[in-house]
Amino acid sequence: MSRRVSILGEPSSLGAYAPGQENAPRALREAGLVERLRESGLEVVDHGDADVARWRPDRDYPLAQNLFGVVRVVDETARRVAGPLADGDFVLVLGGDCTVGIGTVKAAAELGSVGVVYFDLHADLNTPQSVPDGALDWMGPAHMLALESVEPGLRDVGRSTPLLRPDDIVFYAHDDRRATTWEREQIARLGLRLFPVPDVSADPAATAAAAVEALGDRHQRLVVHFDADVVDFNDAPLSEHTGRNTGITLATAMDALRVMLADPRVAALTVTEINPLHAAADETALPRLIEGLARSISQRD
Predict the structure, then answer these.
(1) Which residue from 62, 237, 250, 252 has the least number of CB within 10 angstroms?
(2) Under 8 Å between Cβ of 153 and 130
(3) Segment 260-269, tens digit of pLDDT
């Protein structure tokens, strides 16, 4: 495995409910992420941050807010990720809302077969017709899987549609209590593989290994998509979504991530849904996350 890590920031909150996440890449840098990775013995190539793309209300497309901007960010992310990925670097993408992760998957898919570990409390299988809020950041896998009633402009971002098949993705640290009725129906209909929160909390290492193994050996590259809302807000108030007494601890999340990233096929990690304003409520939150990321990435041999 390459010891070289390429970092790039996509400071976008266009797919979110409100502004805030566009500040996450800058906050992670200012908290010392790049320096900590280098201290871990990694060769770090910092590609900097793209232009800030801040959420705004979209009254023209209320059920798919800021759709065209989201598609632009997805394409931009894929373009920026593609080069380092092709060079064999491990790519760390700093979001931004969850739609940024579609760009990482798109870049990997253009280089060959890709599998995804979707490390998120939510399955994000909603569509503009299944929920009324119009926030695209909980609709990413729905578009990658080309579910019924998704937006064609976001569905067709890859070279082929769908971008993923049901056996190309596993959902890790999923909380069924947070799922909509539509999402539960799609999970059952497609036979999607889930690793529920209680199982992850009980044994993060074993479930993380099982999640990677569940993708089989037919994928040339794996991508891990990490959504900070999987972390209990009481333990580390990192996320845009203030879910208290739910999810898993940050330490548990990092234990699982360390096992996932040990697989040599894992080529990229997208970190999303961090709101620095919330994280400022606990001065240890970002440093703990950065330490966990550094340890997880640096142990790749």
Answers:
(1) 62
(2) no
(3) 999 999 999 9
User: How many separate domains does the chain show?
Assistant: 1
164-191 tens-digit pLDDT = 999 999 999 999 999 999 999 999 999 9
Place of tokens 């500040």: 23
User: By the 8 A CB rule, do 105 and 116 touch?
Assistant: yes
214, 170 Cβ separation under 8 angstroms: yes
Q: State the Cα–Cα distance between residues 247 and 211, nearest whole angstrom.
A: 17
- The total of other beta-carbon atoms located within 10 Å of residue 24's CB is 31
Please check whether residue 268 is in contact with residue 92, taking contact to mean a CB–CB distance below 8 angstroms.
yes
- Asked if 230 and 119 count as a contact pair (C-beta separation under 8 A), the reply is yes
Range of the domain at 247: 4-298
Determine the 3-state secondary structure of 272 from DSSP.
strand
CATH number, residue 181 = 3.40.800.10
Its pTM surpasses 0.85: yes
Length of the chain: 301
Q: How far apart are CA 75 and CA 78, in angstroms?
A: 5
* Gap between the Cα atoms of 125 and 147, Å rounded: 8
Q: Over the stretch 41-58, which tens digit does the pLDDT of each residue have? A: 999 999 999 999 999 999
Alpha-helix residue ranges (DSSP H) falling in 147-203: 152-155, 181-190, 197-202
